[in-house]
Design brief:
Largest sheet: 8 strands, mixed
Number of strands: 16
CATH superfamily: Class I glutamine amidotransferase (GATase) domain
Strand order of the largest sheet: 5-4-6-7-1-12-13-16
Order of helices and strands: EEEHEHEHEHHEHEEEHEEEEEE
Distance between the termini: 23 Å
Number of domains: 1
CATH class: Alpha Beta
Structural class: alpha/beta
Number of helices: 7
Length: 243
């Protein structure tokens, strides 16, 4: 059964090293599956690797991780062509769409060429849980800092904007991201912005952020907002549930 309302899990995590395989699904991906409310059959996860160019070697690792977890995995590869003419059915028949990291700028450009944004929106409205890590988190928002263009971070502001907020990922592990988020919120380049440390995620029901979660003990989530009409920025650490 689909989620009972439009649901997005935007994260800086989800993967972990495997015991007998290179990769396993972490607690955040398992949480996304739980949110889909699947009963009586194996869950279906659609993995999207556009942001890193659909590398087949990584697809194989994700498929292996699915076998370990008892989850059916299929891959929405857009290079060199989509797998079907009916992307609505391909995406909409999944329980969870998990978008991997890489270049959010390239992801958005390729998705627009294939008109995948509206497909994702229809799936979201129908109860397919949308999720992802890094680029797969920023894409659902208005935008956020990205290294898509080189080692120096730049601001991406043409996200799909299903969620009317900015998004900061890898907030604790990449020192340039926090000051860039603060500056962008202060100037109005980004609206109210939610951020995640590595291993943390933000759960949205509809367009409301309802829960901060983490698969790592020290990871947190944050809310960054302008104070009134001033350029002063306030950052709040959110109460974060440990999975």
């Amino acid at each position: 059964m689909p989620a009972d309302q439009p649901t997005i899990l935007a994260t800086s995590g989800g993967w972990r090293a495997g015991y007998r395989t290179d990769l396993e699904f972490g607690l955040l991906i398992h949480f996304a599956i739980e949110l889909a409310g699947v009963t009586g059959r194996r869950p279906r996860l659609c993995h999207v690797g556009t942001a890193s160019g659909d590398p087949r070697w990584f697809n194989a690792r994700v498929s292996e991780a699915g076998q370990v977890a008892g989850i059916d995995v299929y891959h929405l590869n857009l290079f060199s062509m989509p797998p079907t003419n009916d992307l609505d059915d391909f995406v909409g028949s999944s329980d969870v769409v998990w978008v991997n990291g890489g270049s959010v700028a390239n992801l958005l450009a390729v998705w627009r060429v294939h008109e995948l944004g509206p497909v994702m929106h229809r799936a979201w409205q129908a109860g397919v849980v949308l999720g992802g890590i890094s680029a797969g988190s920023i894409c659902w928002h208005v935008g956020g800092p990205t290294d898509s263009f080189g080692p120096e971070l730049r601001m991406q502001t043409n996200g799909l904007a299903f969620l009317p907020y900015g998004n900061g990922v890898h907030y604790d592990s990449e020192s340039g991201r926090r000051p860039m988020v603060h500056a962008a919120v202060a100037s109005g380049q980004l609206p109210l912005t939610y951020c995640t440390d590595d291993g943390a995620g933000l759960l949205y029901r509809g367009t409301t952020m309802v829960e901060a979660v983490a698969e790592q003990g020290l990871a947190n989530c944050y809310r960054v907002a302008r104070q009134g009409n001033s350029a002063t920025v306030v950052e709040d650490v959110l109460d974060t549930s440990r999975l």
